[in-house]
Amino acid sequence: MNTKDVKAYAAQNAETPLREFTIKRREVTAHDVEIEILFCGICHSDLHQVHNDFGGTMYPIVPGHEIVGRATAIGDHVTKFKVGDLAAVGCIVDSCGKCRQCEADLEQFCEVETTFSFNSPDKYLGGATFGGYSESIVTDENYVLSVPQSLDLAGAAPLLCAGITVYSPLKH
Ligand SMILES: [Zn+2]
Ligand SMILES: [Zn+2]
């Protein structure tokens, strides 16, 4: 699979600060959107994962799951985005797509396997997925959200986790 090198910030272990680190991103496949990351929120879950508070952190880890940016490349079969569109990625980047939960648009509860934006097995490149503390991300369009032009992008980023975490229970 073709890849490109992308600058990121990674923690190499639970004790040291994040430092510059080069990661690989796949070139877009048929259903992917490549996003130049313009803003990424800092969520306390990022810190927990960096510090291995939940166990199972795969180092080096590139956190970040409140990602907002602009589409810079799209796969041949992408229908929801075009180059130049504002786009966002939250906590998850893949799921089975077939189980009851996925069929009900509740991919975060996928009964088979949810792939998180970072620190999750990467089905394409092996190793771990890398999050938004990086220059760009490549994500299946089904897990990419549209961002209205009218929103302040820096303010929009935290909606991807902190915002939805409040909105969802209120709505329910
Ligand atoms: Zn599923
Ligand atoms: Zn979060």
Briefly summarize what is shown.
The protein is α+β, with helices and mostly antiparallel strands and 172 residues long. Helices cover 15% and strands 28% of the residues. One zinc ion binds next to loops.
Can you walk me through this structure?
The strands form 3 sheets. A 5-stranded antiparallel beta sheet has the order 8-3-4-5-9. The protein has helices spanning 44-50, 100-103, 153-156, 162-171; strands spanning 3-10, 19-26, 32-40, 67-74, 86-89, 92-94, 115-116, 136-140, 145-146. The longest helix is centred in the C-terminal third of the chain and has 10 residues, at 162-171. The protein has one domain (3-158): Medium-chain alcohol dehydrogenases, catalytic domain (Quinone Oxidoreductase, Chain A, domain 1, Alpha-Beta Complex), CATH 3.90.180.10. The protein is built from 4 helices and 9 strands, in the order E-E-E-H-E-E-E-H-E-E-E-H-H. With 172 residues, the chain is α+β, with helices and mostly antiparallel strands. It is 15% helix and 28% strand. The site of one zinc ion has 4 residues, from loops.
